[in-house]
Fold GDSL esterase/lipase.
Amino acid sequence: MENKSWVGLLVLCLAIAVVGLAEAGVPAIFILGDSTADVGTNNFLPGSMARADFPHNGVDFPFSRATGRFSNGLNSADFLSKQFGLKRSPRPFLSLNTTSLHKKSFRGVNFASGGSGLLDITGRTMLTLMKFGKERIPFGAPFFNRKNVITLSEQIQQLSLVKSNLAAIKGQRLTEKLISKSLFFISTGSNDLFGYYHSNTSFSEEAFLSSLELAYEKHLKSLIDLGARKFGIISVAPIGCCPSQRIYNTTGGCLEDLNDLAIAFHARLDALLFKLSSEHKSIKYSLGNAFEMTINVIQYPLAFNFTQVEAACCGAGKLNAESFCSPKAKLCPNRNNYLFWDLFHPTQAASKLAAVTLYNGGPQFVYPINFAQLAKA
Ligand SMILES: *[C@@H]1O[C@H](CO)[C@@H](O)[C@H](O)[C@H]1NC(C)=O
Ligand SMILES: *[C@@H]1O[C@H](CO)[C@@H](O)[C@H](O)[C@H]1NC(C)=O
Ligand SMILES: *[C@@H]1O[C@H](CO)[C@@H](O)[C@H](O)[C@H]1NC(C)=O
Ligand SMILES: *[C@@H]1O[C@H](CO)[C@@H](O)[C@H](O)[C@H]1NC(C)=O
């Protein structure tokens, strides 16, 4: 008897968990992009230098587990997924095995890979820069032999593989339907802008932004060809205000030129999405303005319970931003009051705020509809 009621309860709990996502008409969530959304992809790349599967990362995750997230706990991909009734982000593609897609509980895949960008070249150059910060070392042969990141192009190939596997299990028609109703979250672009800004290229800003816009268009068209219809896109935050960039400004202020690049990138992305949605009437999108969201927090920190929006919580040196977060780094105690976890990434508290704003924020932060409306659209 007792056993039976346990089973009954279990079934009920499972049913409720499934209803959360199904209620919104969203069968699954697919996440692509960079370290802002990576939930452990790079743990599977032994040679990668963009990894976070060691303490103090994860210090506020259940059991203080370092999962590969660049955060003290969950990241924005997790909190967005939670808004749609999942426990956290779907698992990384590279952690899946042949049984994963068969599961009744299949609710999506996360492909995001720290260090990647819109351009295939970005993972290589960026990592050297990120890893060594100010003591930059020349981009050398050893780094070209390593698999540092899964590029966005590769992430889309992986999605294509997932789709073929789903089709083999569920049939082509059901799979097409699943893909067309699913949400595709993309968070990328920062690493491309960092790479451009810190390189000495003679490429003009306009030409570079055009190349990024073209790359984004190519990626989105590939996703549309695969049947994706609902896009939740997150643009670039004021990355000139990252602790890692503030240390290049003698006043400790933001690097204005880098912020201007982020604003210009947002305008390009806005125009591109408008164009694509006119060409493909069946696609729906939300564009999250990470710049406005974050600048708002930096200007009015106390309104969001933040007391420190300049220094990193985990790191070393000036603004705690002269090294990456590592077991030897200095760790702040009041992590809920920090905007930045490490020299580049937001804390769990900041990621949660971002996800809630994307989900139900107004048009100044997420446009033309928010993520909740996107799910129902
Ligand atoms: C597949 O992955 C799941 C979840 O990590 C694990 O429990 C299971 O044992 C794996 N199955 C095989 C055949 O490796
Ligand atoms: C960047 O460009 C300046 C001026 O053209 C040059 O003096 C400098 O050596 C270059 N730095 C690097 C790292 O290539
Ligand atoms: C450095 O920060 C100050 C604000 O403190 C700002 O006015 C200035 O433009 C910044 N410098 C650069 C190079 O961005
Ligand atoms: C605000 O910060 C305080 C101090 O760290 C913390 O105890 C509290 O939980 C925070 N409040 C919210 C709503 O996050």
Observations:
- Residues 305, 334, 336-337 surround 2-acetamido-2-deoxy-beta-D-glucopyranose (ligand 4) (CB under 6 Å).
- The chain has one domain: 2-376.
- DSSP finds 13 helices and ten strands in the chain.
